[in-house]
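Homework help board

Subject: predicted structure for assignment chain

Our instructor gave us this sequence and asked us to write out the predicted structure in token form, then describe one feature. I got the tokens but I'm not sure how to describe them. Can anyone check?
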Amino acid sequence: MQSKYRPFIEKLQNADFFTYKFVERKVGKNYAKLLLHNLKKNGKIVE
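My token output:
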């Protein structure tokens, strides 16, 4: 099953920078926290 946010996640991974609020508006508050935590934990983004 492909995530409906996969294209958005790929853009985040390739972005030079982004804000938490930007992600929150796109995916919702609770999922934004989980998404960013998991991406950081897996080394896909850096803080």
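Reply (TA_rk): Your tokens look well-formed. For the description, you could write something like this. The chain has one domain: 6-41. That's the kind of observation they're looking for.
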